[in-house]
């Protein structure tokens, strides 16, 4: 067998390598477990056009649906609610829909996004959160 000091050095380097590889994956998982919180102090209103509808894959309906919304020259990522709640409410969105929304500007990791509280499409108003930003869909469980 080789020198025990060399063995420990190799073991130490292997542990560092594993931690460097697992760090980002664990951080991503932590963000999924700790979704961003609604902040009434950053609440804003905006109008825009739906550029893309992002729905979770089939079988993951409890995951959040979100929209990429074009507002002027900017495109914002708007988090709505679990897809199952949209289905329960009978609401859907399509590319090109003109919407108005009220929501909180928050950061998740490096990304800026909007947590929607209320979305108006045509004559329909979808209320997703109460005035304090608490999700309404949790009442429907």
Characteristic key phrases:
OB fold (Dihydrolipoamide Acetyltransferase, E2P), 141 residues, elongated, 26% helix, alpha+beta, five-stranded mixed beta barrel
The count of DSSP E runs of length 2 or more, i.e. the number of strands, is 6
Rg from C-alpha positions?
Answer: 21 Å
Mean model confidence by pLDDT: 83
- CATH architecture assignment of the largest domain: Beta Barrel
Structural class: alpha+beta
Within the largest sheet, what's the order of strands? 1-2-3-5-4
- Low-pLDDT runs: 25-32
Helix content: 25-40%
Head-to-tail CA distance between termini:
60 Å
Structure commentary:
This protein has 141 residues and is α+β, with helices and mostly antiparallel strands. It has helices at 4-33, 83-89, and strands spanning 43-54, 64-71, 74-82, 98-108, 111-121, 124-127. It folds into 2 domains: 1-34; 40-140, OB fold (Dihydrolipoamide Acetyltransferase, E2P) (Beta Barrel). It is 26% helix and 39% strand. The radius of gyration is 21 Å and the shape is elongated.
Helix-strand blueprint:
Blueprint: H1 4-33, E1 43-54, E2 64-71, E3 74-82, H2 83-89, E4 98-108, E5 111-121, E6 124-127
Parallel strand pairs: 3-5
Antiparallel strand pairs: 1-2, 1-4, 2-3, 4-5, 5-6
Short recap of the structure:
By secondary structure, this protein is α+β, with helices and mostly antiparallel strands.
């Amino acid at each position: 067998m080789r020198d025990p000091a060399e063995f420990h050095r190799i073991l130490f380097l292997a542990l560092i390598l594993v931690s460097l590889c697992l760090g980002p994956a664990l951080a991503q998982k932590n963000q999924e477990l700790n979704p961003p919180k609604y902040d009434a102090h950053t609440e804003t209103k905006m109008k825009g056009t739906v550029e893309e509808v992002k729905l979770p894959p089939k079988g993951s309906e409890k995951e959040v649906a979100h929209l990429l919304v074009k507002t002027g020259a900017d495109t914002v990522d708007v988090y709505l609610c679990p897809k199952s709640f949209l289905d329960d409410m009978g609401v859907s969105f399509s590319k090109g829909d003109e919407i108005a929304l009220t929501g909180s500007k928050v950061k998740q990791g490096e990304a800026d996004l909007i947590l929607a509280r209320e979305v108006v499409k045509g004559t329909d108003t979808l209320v997703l959160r109460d005035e304090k930003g608490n999700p309404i869909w949790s009442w429907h469980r």
